[in-house]
Structure formats: structure tokens, C-alpha cells
Amino acid sequence: DAIIKQFQDWVKKEYGVDVKLDYVPSQSPTIYLTNLYTAQKAGNPAPYDVMAIEENYYFDAKANDVVQDIYPSGLMPNWDRVDAQFRHDPQAVAFQSTATPSPIFHADKVGSWFKDWKDLADPRLKGRLTMPLSGDVTAGGFLIGMAWSLGKDYKDEAQMTETIDFICNNVHPNVLKYTTDSAEMQQLLRSGDIDVAGFWNSLARLEGLSGADGTKDTTYLPMASGQPAVNGYMWVPKGAAHPVLAQLFIDWRLSDDGQLPGDAWGIPNNAWAEYHEGLLGDSYAKAIPAWIANDYFEYYPKLDDIRKAYKTVDWEYYAKHVDDWMKQYSKCAG
Hints:
Structural class: alpha/beta
Strand order of the largest sheet: 6-5-7-4-8
Shape: globular
Distance between the termini: 32 Å
Number of strands: 11
Low-confidence stretches: none
Strand content: 5-15%
Radius of gyration: 20 Å
């Protein structure tokens, strides 16, 4: 709701025009691609003006030739502020720099020994863990992370089969529930029914800064063998109905206010820390709000540290093999 209001207000202020932003949220971005491909095959206009979803879906769409070249453009000066590692010129640009699927855990309960993906198999977690459902990139990130942790190559089919077998044989017994419902994970963490939740790392900031009972020690740390970088990217589909407004939205989302919201947004600190997903370039540091400025790098890595802990993924390979991975994973993950 805050995104909608702030963008509409910005367009009104800058251009004196009233617009209505329809923001369609879903935890299953494959729905967007299905709708986009269906429209393309039927010769209809694209059902969306801007796609703002994880990087792997951009590569899927690119392979299906539905992505419009949009850069460079005088409507998007903020694109140039974004570090090269978060850009796919001339089509897509990240709006996040630190998003990654990861175990979120109670530091007071497991922080002394929980260091890597394979620790999810530790019997001390029996019945104390949630894992992602089979299907979307949240689960994909966990499968890749586990492969790294076991010293296996996710681009080797046999080794990936071994990785998923390890999860189903050794991690599955610890799982209380497979879910991608963030509210459910929050409830289970707060009640103390689980020690570890498998979700996006932003959940740790949302909980740790909430002030609610049972949340203060909720923590995310990069796993020892590395984190898959699964940032959200913005791009414009071919045949978008409002290509000018699409570029304006992208530029606004890459502005200081779009990246590091100010008081006018009226959102609590923990929601701010879930929305903001790390600095996209050096120039954004000056806009870090005063309330978190002294502690910012306790919650977010520096740009140089992102290069060390966050590993790029071969998304073109991923797109070709993820269905097979999920078919195998679904045997234990539903």
C-alpha cells in the first residue's frame, strides 16, 4: 500500500497527473510468467507494465523473447547509479542487492552451532524446522545452498540428485512443516515452536526489529558455504500498455526515496527493514535514515562483502533443470 501511495504522489508532484498503480503481489511469480506467455501467444498486449520479480524469472522471460530493451533512457537516470553487478543492460536492473533464501534462526537456541546448510540435518532440530514447499525459487535457493554445503556441483545432474536425496533422507525428519507462508513462520518462531525457518533473509530483520515477544534473537547470517544471490529485478515486457509510466516507476523505485524510504512513508522500522534489501551502489549510502545509520551494517553487508558471501547462479542452467529438481524434492516437500 505504501508503494502505491508514494509512487502515485510522486507522479502527481512531478508531472501534475493523477495515475492509478495496480500492484499485483504473489508469492508464486510463475503466475506472472504464465499470464505473460499466454498473452504473447494469443497476440494480446502484455498484462503488466513492469515486472519486479526474482532474477531467475527474468532469464526465463528473456529466453522466451518477451523482454523489451529499455536502457539507456532519459527517463531513468537512476539506472546509472546501480552497481554493474546488479544490472543486465539493456533490459533489467535490480531493486535489491542482498535478497537470498536462507535459514532464519533463533540465535539463543542454535546460534552456537548452526553455521551451514547441512546443519539443517542435525538431529537437534528434529521437529524444530520449517522448509520451503517445492515449487518456487525459495526452494531452489535452498537446494543450491545445500549442494554447496555438501561440496557438490549443482550443475552436475548426478550430484544434484545426491543433494536432494540428502535433504529428503536427513533434513526431512527434522521438518515440522513445509511452508512458504511468512505469517505462519512468524507465528511459529514467536511461539517457540520452531528454532529455524527456511525463507527469505528479510524475515530476520522484520522479526528482529519488531519488538514483539520472542523475536529479539531472530537472526540471519550468511551460511559458511555461501548464499545464492536471488535479487529482484525490474524489466518491461514487450507489448506493455504504458511503457513511459513503466520507466518512470523503475526510475522512482531506484531513487533514494524508493530504496530507503523516509518518514513520509509512515511504515514501522521492521517493515522498512524488510522492504529495503541493501545498497545498490555507493551513492545510496548518504540516504540511510538516521534511525538505523549507526547500526546499518549490522543488518546489511557492505557492497564488497556482498561479492564474497553472495554467489551468482547460472540462471539459464537453472531454468532448464529446476523442474526436475522440484519433482524430486516434492517427494518429501509436497
